[in-house]
Design goal:
heterodimer, A: mainly alpha, rod-shaped, B: mainly alpha, two-stranded antiparallel ribbon, 8 helices, globular
Chain lengths: ~55, ~250
């Protein structure tokens, strides 16, 4: 197979995999931070967290 | 958020939370790779060479990249008009993905050109130069945005930049029709150019990249929403912690 073709597709797949993994790791990190912060925001009388927009 | 925006935002949020785009990306991506290396034509523009197979991902990435930057433009306009945070988050998320796609288009195009045109880059080709302009414009947009840190004025500045900078996108995509390109020539609707690309494979690849874009956009918007929520919760709990005890 043409080496430059392997390089081209290799670059595409490597970049996309790295970007997806980076996003997933930041997402789980943000979800964890939200879990850590959210309990302190709960209203004990209503027992609810803060809503979205 | 006004009553016209609410259903649109709700629909987009539902699409972004769905796992369907992720599964479709996997399915269509495998189908695309299988067909590209299986039966797609490697003869294009009168040249038969294995490197031509890069076109089946180079073209879809360029097309979806252009779409991503159009979404950024629309998001910036809607944010400036309505001041709804969701549009700003959508614009920034799409701009980041568009930037990744533009970078990959430049890399794969360069690799393709090295074999077919015998050069990695040609400054006299209008398509190449205007596409590089897009890369710099959106690098600038992401840099300005990264300095915003949730500040409304910087976000608005980045959005104005996103609206003005978008002018480079249609210019680049139409450049081969507006000016005479040395290397690129318009292939759609041009009887003089015979691309002989396998249309079915190209369509499957475009569908795969489009699903990937929706999946990435959903993840990126959700990440922004979560970060904004965490920051606002932290800010609120800090305010409550430092609240004065009242009258003693």
């Amino acid at each position: 197979m043409e080496p430059l073709l392997v390089f081209g597709y290799g670059t595409i797949f490597a970049a996309l995999v790295v970007y997806v993994l980076h996003l997933r790791s930041r997402l789980s990190e943000a979800e964890q931070r939200l879990e850590d912060v959210a309990p302190s925001d709960r209203d004990p009388e209503r027992g609810t967290g803060s809503g979205g927009e | 958020m006004n009553r016209y925006e609410r259903p649109v935002v709700a629909l987009l949020r539902r699409v972004f939370r769905s796992s369907i785009p992720g599964y479709l990306t996997l399915l269509l991506g495998l189908a695309s790779v299988g067909s590209v290396f299986g039966y797609a034509s490697e003869s294009m523009y009168g040249v038969s060479h294995g490197i031509n197979r890069i076109a089946y991902w180079h073209v879809p990435i360029a097309v979806v990249g252009g779409l991503a930057l159009t979404v950024t433009f629309l998001g910036c306009v809607l944010y400036l008009v309505t001041a709804t945070r969701f549009w700003e988050q959508l614009a920034h998320a799409s701009g980041e993905i568009g930037f990744v796609f533009v970078t990959l288009t430049l890399v794969t195009g360069s690799v393709w050109g090295r074999v077919i045109w015998n050069t990695w880059w040609d400054w006299s080709d209008i398509r190449l130069v205007t596409f590089l302009f897009i890369w710099f414009i959106y690098a600038g947009y992401l840099i300005i945005y990264s300095g915003a840190g949730g500040s409304g004025s910087v976000s608005r500045l980045a959005s104005v930049y996103g609206v003005v900078g978008f002018i480079t996108v249609p210019i680049s995509y139409a450049s081969t029709r507006l000016w005479t390109a040395r290397l690129h020539s318009p292939s759609v609707g041009n009887p003089e150019t015979e691309a002989t690309i396998t249309a079915s494979v190209l369509l499957v690849s475009i569908a795969a990249i489009l699903c990937l874009y929706v999946y990435l956009l959903g993840s990126r918007v959700r990440l922004r929403e979560l970060s904004t929520r965490v920051d606002s919760l932290k800010g609120r709990s800090a305010t409550e912690t430092h609240k004065p005890l009242g009258d003693d």
